[in-house]
């Protein structure tokens, strides 16, 4: 189409031989002017030569983070340079997640995959990567952190210690700072031109995480020390308890995974421990089956606090970001125990 138009306009521009040139009449002047303008316009339509993206250009990287709280952390590091998408939908428990074909496709298409690590995604990650095939950079947010050792008397198992590591490092904001540093370094490796931006964004976000840590410590001061005792759905609040001076009396599910189930003897021991310690509440995470906790509450006369957000952010209030998530949980714990 462009070629035919060019020929028509060319005929207007150059149809008069030089030897026969004569003074144009007014309407011919107009046609000649329009033809000349069109010639320049067509020349301007030609595709510009390809250029190499500068330092400020966004790289063509697809970044995927398994959990929504990880995606939020990573987005704070990436800033406007990259878009980070979560693999899991909101309110999905990574302990029991089963990938669908769409999830395999997302992983197959990504260049960078951010995982919590420390065993949190062990139930599905290897199978998912094998199904997706290909190669991608994997950033393990919890890499370099050491799993906590349960303090004596914490667990339902009459002093027995679990040998499985606790992957819930992110519930301590100081460990979340370590996550941010690993994410910063990983994104800088994948996109060296953006390293300066990632470093600056990480520094700003880390400052906010330190403020969060100070705020939680101040809020916990409202709880008398003798009441800082936690019973939770499963073993997830250990790092939070260590950081802010709580004692974990026991868990409804004696495991770091929600897939386990307590025996009748374990439940009976937990009921006895709650009575002896004077615990005020049982705290459940979103998506937890409240049946067993409600049974324990009836036998002990304590209340059940539901809807703590630990493994997922929310779509809007009350916990749309990682920082909001920990603020909400802290407010709920303080309100129940102070």
Write a concise keyword list for the protein shown above.
Rossmann fold, 3 domains, 338 residues, four-stranded parallel β-sheet, 8 strands, 11 helices, globular
Tally of distinct domains = 3
Find the CATH topology of the largest domain: Rossmann fold
The tally of helices reads 11
Q: Which shape, going by the Cα principal axes?
A: globular
Overall strand count: 8
Q: What is the gyration radius calculated from CA atoms?
A: 31 Å
Approximate helicity band: 40-55%
Q: What is the name of the CATH superfamily of the largest domain?
A: Nitrogenase molybdenum iron protein domain
Roughly how many Å apart are the termini? 77 Å
CATH class term of the largest domain? Alpha Beta
Uncertain spans: 1-53, 156-163
Class per helix and strand makeup: alpha/beta
Largest sheet: 4 strands, parallel
- Output mean pLDDT: 84
Note down, in words, how this protein is organized.
The chain is α/β, with parallel strands linked by helices and 338 residues long. The protein folds into three domains: 43 residues; 152 residues, Rossmann fold (3-Layer(aba) Sandwich), CATH 3.40.50; 116 residues, Rossmann fold, CATH 3.40.50. Helix content is 45%, strand content 11%. The protein has a four-stranded parallel beta sheet, with helices on one face. It has a four-stranded parallel beta sheet with strand order 6-5-7-8, with helices on both faces. Helix 1 packs antiparallel against helix 2 and helix 4 packs across helix 5. The longest helix has 26 residues. The chain starts with a helix and ends with a helix. The relative contact order is 0.11. The N terminus is likely disordered.
């Amino acid at each position: 189409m462009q070629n035919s138009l060019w020929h028509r306009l060319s005929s207007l521009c150059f149809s008069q031989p030089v030897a026969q040139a004569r003074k144009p009449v007014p309407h011919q002047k107009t046609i000649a002017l329009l033809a000349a303008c069109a010639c320049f316009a067509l020349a301007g339509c030609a595709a510009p030569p390809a250029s190499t993206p500068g330092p400020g250009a966004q790289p063509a990287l697809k970044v995927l983070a398994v959990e929504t709280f990880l995606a939020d952390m990573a987005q704070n590091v990436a800033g406007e340079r990259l878009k980070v998408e979560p693999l899991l939908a909101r309110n999905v428990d990574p302990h029991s997640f089963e990938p669908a074909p769409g999830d395999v496709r997302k992983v197959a298409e990504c260049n960078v995959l951010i995982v919590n690590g420390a065993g949190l995604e062990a139930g599905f990650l290897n199978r998912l990567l094998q199904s997706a095939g290909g190669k991608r950079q994997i950033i393990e947010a919890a890499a370099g952190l050491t799993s906590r050792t349960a303090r004596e008397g914490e667990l339902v198992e009459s002093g027995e210690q679990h040998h499985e590591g606790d992957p819930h490092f992110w519930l301590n904001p100081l460990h979340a700072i370590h996550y941010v540093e690993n994410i910063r370094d990983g994104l800088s490796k994948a996109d060296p031109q953006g390293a300066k931006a990632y470093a600056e964004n990480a520094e700003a976000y880390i400052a906010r995480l330190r403020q969060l840590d100070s705020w939680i410590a101040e809020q916990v001061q409202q709880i008398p020390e003798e009441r800082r005792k936690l019973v939770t759905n499963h073993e997830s609040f250990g790092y939070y308890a260590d950081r802010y001076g709580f004692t974990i009396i026991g868990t409804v599910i004696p495991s770091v995974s929600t897939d386990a189930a307590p025996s009748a003897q374990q439940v009976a021991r937990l009921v006895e421990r709650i009575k002896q310690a004077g615990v005020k509440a049982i705290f459940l995470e979103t998506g937890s089956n409240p049946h067993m906790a409600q049974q324990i509450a009836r036998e002990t006369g304590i209340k059940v606090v539901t809807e703590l957000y630990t493994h997922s952010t929310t779509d809007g209030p009350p916990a749309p970001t990682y920082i909001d998530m920990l603020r909400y949980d802290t407010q709920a714990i303080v309100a129940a125990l102070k």
